Amino acid sequence: MFRNKSxxxxxxxxxxxxxxxxxxxxxxxxxxxxxxxxEADHARAAEYFxxxxxxxxxxxxxxxxxxxxxxxxGNFDSASAIMRRMQGAGLQASLxxxxxLVDWMEAGDYAALRGALGSxxxxxxxxxxxxxxxxxxxxxxxxGDTEAxxxxxxxxxxxxxxRGVVLYHKALALAVSGDYAAAEALLSGESDGPLxxxxxxxxxxxxxxxxxxxxxxxxxxxxxxxxxxxxxxxxDIVAKLEAGEAIPLSVPDAKAGIAEAFYTMxxxxxxxxxxxxxxxxxxxxxxxxxxxxxxxxxxxxIYDEQGNYALASELYDQVPREHPAYLQAExxxxxxxxxxxxxxxxxxxxxxxxxxxxxLVEVQVSLGDALTxxxxxEAARAAYDKAVALLDDPAQDDWQIFYARGITLERLGIWPxxxxxFRRALELSPDEPRVLNYLGYSLVEKNESxxxxxxxxxxxxxxxxxxxxxxxxxxxxYYRLGRYEEAVPPMEHAxxxxxxxxxxxDHLGDVYWAVGRKLEAQFMWRRALSFxxxxxxxxxxxxxxxxxKLEVGLDKVLAEEGAEPLGTNSEGN
Length: 573
Description:
Layout: H1 5-13, H2 27-38, H3 42-55, H4 60-73, H5 76-88, H6 96-106, H7 110-117, H8 130-142, H9 146-156, H10 163-176, H11 180-188, H12 199-211, H13 215-225, H14 235-242, H15 254-269, H16 276-288, H17 293-306, H18 309-316, H19 326-339, H20 343-356, H21 361-373, H22 377-389, H23 399-411, H24 415-428, H25 433-445, H26 450-463, H27 468-480, H28 484-497, H29 502-514, H30 518-530, H31 543-552, H32 554-560
């Protein structure tokens, strides 16, 4: 089988290898699958390539494409059938080794894996065979050769870059073999020096200490690690420790250990190459250890990033209610549903969470955010009110809650309370540009405290000079103050940054008119009208008013509205 590590990356990134011309009458299905693969739509890719393969059963390219799509979906039974067909045809492909390993582990055939790793078999990682060696140590343990397993981990730990990762796996293997004392010595740093522990490492050490009967020590460990508060992901462990119960290992055997090796590699490579490799490894981890919720969450988050919101929400929904990650999964499910356009379903998920977790600020804030995205301002206000009521002593980061509620109140037309929330947000975070801009712009629109508004927006603009909305606000406050020439540069800059925003184009048209550049003003108003259906601030645009400006000019429109005339001679081109 292929040992070229770059080939795995190519297969995961580009689900298209064969020219469509060689597919004959199967070309349409093949091309549909290839497009789906390029868009990371794994479900459709699997469907189309499987359909194409049914029409051309011996096509090697289609077999590899179908294999890749099935692995990306986590369908290892289907992938295994394709792999065996490829083996029968004498074909080689990168993902076949991973699928073969899964088959062996499902059968408990550690001897087969050990033999294969010794003869060039490779899992295709990009770290010079690191995953092969890690899996090899676990294969030794699964085969009953604990001494060889520990020697394999020790040799791999000689590379300083991933030493901590390897020692974590060695501690896992010691615990799986029943040597809890040696595992604790390693995790504590007593035997091999300091070992920084991630969340999974802390969980392992607490499990090991509970097996040794050191319940108080384990509780103290978690208390110190999380600053005296119970981390949600550790709530189940803390409850058992307080009850004096020994906690079963979350990685109970060598098969789950290999799953952990795949998950480790998925973590190491996360963020590279579109997460194609991380997806493959995380799916393998899930297959080998179905209870590996962290791997499930990684797959779901990758699906999210790829735009596979339906697949993501289905995975998030698989996390059991009693699992410590349930809340995190429900947040993820709500976001996936919202991005899939199912806003009502997303809001319902968060509504249920708000009933189950009425005292969690983040739940109420997330519900408020979801409601505002659907313009349900009254309901959003109620959620934000509950969030604020739960804040005993607001911290600096809590400015976001007051800011969000301020926007909601402003949209409801309750300006005094909205302004109070914006100013409270600034008390907590005085230089926050989003608050400075929103409050400053709102004051400009209401023609209140214009000098203060200008100072706010200038401060926001200094921090974010390339933010189109802030640049628009700066130009607009100059316009409101009658400082039309000063308004031109920031307004033009805003239009360069956000060329299709109808509000910014409309504003620039008014500014051009004010400085006598009438033809340019009319051009910008026409642009604003053309973008009314596409811009991000359509609710702030009045198309009829823009059309009236095009008919009679801004001066007459202001006169018809009873507004103050422009404080300048707007004659010009």
